[in-house]
Write a sequence for this structure.
């Protein structure tokens, strides 16, 4: 009609949110919009401390067992000799960088859990471990102990971060387990605090709730079968109770862990070796370890778990340390059987 002008009605933008692990693509009702606030620049200033080890310390040997494969998103080494570790501490995510300075170790930490990381630095570096009490009983073990004077048993005090990758390693090749760990952390973890998140692409392990919300097809895509995925889901449901095991003695901690269906002696031993720095908790049920120990100490490449425990009996109280030294010696029986077949269920 002449003399009237059409004025378009202002439209309120609609938003759409996808909830990971829930109903993907759920439509959220229109909400009031707000002016976006530019993200603040993350604080890259670390908290710093130093530590003077009581005995010789080799960072790589001590912290090496925490690394789950060469591309582990929670662990990095850099050309300057520094070791980086990203963890979910009781106080929140944190990144730790430790550098050997000769007689001292310099530690830098970022994130909400930085203070916790630095407070627990001595035991992470094996200060609660006493290698002087170890007495070699075999020439091979004695020679390796002399060549590796800086080997200390780390104690992380963090149960889930050792338990979950140990569950992933059940009954499959290490390459498959490392791949699953890497994929799950890149998908569901969060960037590590400080420079490690961007510069080194490090990730912090998901919290228990996030683990619990991972859908079945994502486990499948990572190559994790239903048995192992179900064990992890049962574990994260009782995460608080399992984390309490860090303050128990190793035997009691293993008993607590093995109350969860799907966690047996192999998995509990692999966990407490890292969480407790437990020198006597030797791994049983392993496909290769009995043969390696049997070959190294008695020339018996067909040794069973019972044979291995008998050979390690002179090291009572230090059997795990003795097994570590045997592995570090590099002595192993020649392969006479084909490698364990890789079966990636993600291809099914």
């Amino acid at each position: 009609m002449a003399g009237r002008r059409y004025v378009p009605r202002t439209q309120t933008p609609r938003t759409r949110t996808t909830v990971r692990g829930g109903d993907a693509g759920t439509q959220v009702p229109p909400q009031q919009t707000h002016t976006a606030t530019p993200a603040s620049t993350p604080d890259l200033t670390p908290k710093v401390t130093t530590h003077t080890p009581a005995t010789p310390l080799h960072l790589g040997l001590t912290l090496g067992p925490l690394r789950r494969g060469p591309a582990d998103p929670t662990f990095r080494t850099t050309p300057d000799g520094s070791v980086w570790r990203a963890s979910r501490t009781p106080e929140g995510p944190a990144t730790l960088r430790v550098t050997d300075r000769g007689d001292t170790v310099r530690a830098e930490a970022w994130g909400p859990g930085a203070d916790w990381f630095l407070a627990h630095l001595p035991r992470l570096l094996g200060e609660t471990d006493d290698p002087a009490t170890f007495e070699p009983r075999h020439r091979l073990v004695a020679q390796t102990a002399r060549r590796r004077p800086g080997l200390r048993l780390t104690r992380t005090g963090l149960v889930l971060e050792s338990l979950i990758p140990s569950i992933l390693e059940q009954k499959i090749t290490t390459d498959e387990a490392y791949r699953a760990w890497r994929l799950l952390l890149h998908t569901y973890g969060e960037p590590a605090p400080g420079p490690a998140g961007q510069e080194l692409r490090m990730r912090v392990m998901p919290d228990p709730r996030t683990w619990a919300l991972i859908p079945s097809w994502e486990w499948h895509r990572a190559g994790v079968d239903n048995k192992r995925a179900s064990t992890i889901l049962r574990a994260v449901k009782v995460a608080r109770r399992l984390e309490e095991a860090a303050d128990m003695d190793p035997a009691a901690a293993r008993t607590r862990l093995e109350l969860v269906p799907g966690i047996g002696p192999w998995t509990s031993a692999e966990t407490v070796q890292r969480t407790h720095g437990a020198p006597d908790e030797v791994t049983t049920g392993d496909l290769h370890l009995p043969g390696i120990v049997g070959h190294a100490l008695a020339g018996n490449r067909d040794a069973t778990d019972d044979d291995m425990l008998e050979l390690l009996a002179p090291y009572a109280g230090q059997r795990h340390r003795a097994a570590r030294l045997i592995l570090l010696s590099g002595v192993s029986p020649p392969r006479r059987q084909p490698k364990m077949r890789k079966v990636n269920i993600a291809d099914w």
